Amino acid sequence: MSTDVRERNNSAWLLTPNGAAPEHRLRDDMRRFDDADIVDLVIVGSGAGGSTLLQRVARAGWTAVALDAGPFWNPETDWVSDEAGSHELYWTEPRQIGGQDPVPLGSNNSGRGVGGSMVHYAGYVPRFHPSDFHTHSQDGVGADWPIRYDDLRPYYSAIEGELPVAGEDWPWGDAHSYPHRPHPVSGNGEVFQRGALACGITAKVGPVAIANGRFGNRPHCIYRGFCLQGCKVNAKASPLITHIPDALDHGAEVRADSMVTSIEIDQRTGRATGVHYVKNGRQRFQRARMVAVAGYSIETPRLLLNSTSQRFPDGLCNDFDQVGRYLMVQGAPQTAGRFNSEIRMWKGPPPEVSTEDFYETDPSKPYKRGFSIQTVSPLPITWAEHVMAEGRWGAELRNYMSDYVHWACLGALCEFLPQPENRVTLSDERDRYGLPVAHFSYSQCDNDRTLARAAQDVMERILTAAGASETITIQRYAHLVGGARMAHRQEDGVVDADCRSFAVPNLLITDGSVLPTQGSANPALTIMAIAARAADRLIQHPDKTERESQ
């Protein structure tokens, strides 16, 4: 581990000298670059991967600007404690979906604005397991990563300190502890613990990216249950209130409401020279020595495919038809149980108690890989969707809605396998910028379906053991990853182990699209860890001769 990483492992490095966290708002004193300035790095997107990269290079003294298609949010004025009112946090630009099992796109897998989807993620940040990095060698499915768990371990620890993360000691995968003690357990969590104990299943509290108490000038969690709608009180960590403010303090710029339309390539050198974007209805071009793309698993492939040129007629970095392929979602069935006592499942972080007992491949089962189970706490609109998914309408729906306080809900994250035909391509439809929109085709394989049924069976068993008189299930998806995966060879992926593209020497991709497999864990922490590692590798080996020659 480098000295740099060891120093970051103490979360205090994100605080100002008086112990207060930097303000999250867009400040008047932010450094601003001109389009004609050749900045060291321009980053497309400011979510989990883009913000982490921006903050790291800014701390290293690089000139850097991040462009985001959405606004720079101010939680105090822009967000509301209302389920329907949070819709503006999602990416709702037109997209097409297809395949045998189409994936709805929107609230639970897309973000719009500075901070990306982490402003409305559930705040749950488990690590991937060591086995996730070599599933093909170990289990004969998926793919082997060009890095190993040990390469990310110091970055996992560093990010956990920076957010910071609260939770019990974690016994699964690479056993580890967390910087803060776990939060009090909600009624939903108590149901899970009771049922798991009766079934002989290990359940733990955490890990959530919410400090257990005040942290700097961030208030403590008030357990209002609106994590998925944007944390208006700023207790939940997201890049908007952690890494973005620190990046601005170190001279970076965040340019919001700036839709990047293509990446420019010098036809003579084959190097990226900057990005074309639209701001306030005007076409602009930001010059840069290096470009990083962090638009996530739909918009990153779409941007690459839309960046055609004489050198890349089929899309940037697409010489081997790998851009957009192996896009994955996790199967995310949710099972609810009805109890005589009031549960009030919305009181507390939505995922709070979890088990990873079923994460690894079990040779006795008819499927490969596995799933995790977490508490989930749908608010009323989402609960209505859950009830209606089983065909309950009219008076029956009203009865279930009036009974809301008596229900507890669990959710699974199932590791659906990467398949080359699950991919993003460009459609004939165009958006308001005149760009072809993304078409995402997705079909499950037999292993996916069997795995989801197994997860549902376990959730029903836990809730019944806890005393539920009735259970109902909705089939869902969660967490997009893949689409520009890292690989050992350019024939098999888009970027190398350091997130540098094979085809363009000064182009990086630092978002969830680079993941070769998805595990059964929420991906935010892993995306941030990968971006932090890529930043360290970039800073240590920036290819100075080529950077300075431009």
| C-alpha Rg (nearest Å) | 22 Å
Which descriptor suits the 3D outline? globular
Helix share, percent? 10-25%
Low-confidence stretches: 1-13, 15-21
N-end to C-end Cα span: 32 Å
Largest sheet: 7 strands, mixed
Estimated share of beta-strand residues: 15-25%
- What's the mean pLDDT score? 92
Q: Structural class of the helices, strands and pairings?
A: alpha/beta
The tally of strands reads 18
Number of helices: 13
Task: Provide an overview of this structure.
This protein is α/β, with parallel strands linked by helices and 550 residues long. It has 13 helices and 18 strands. The strands form 4 sheets. Strands 1, 2, 5, 6, 7, 8 and 18 form a 7-stranded mixed beta sheet that branches. Strand 7 and strand 8 form a beta hairpin. Helix 2 runs parallel beside helix 7. The longest helix is centred in the C-terminal third of the chain and has 20 residues.
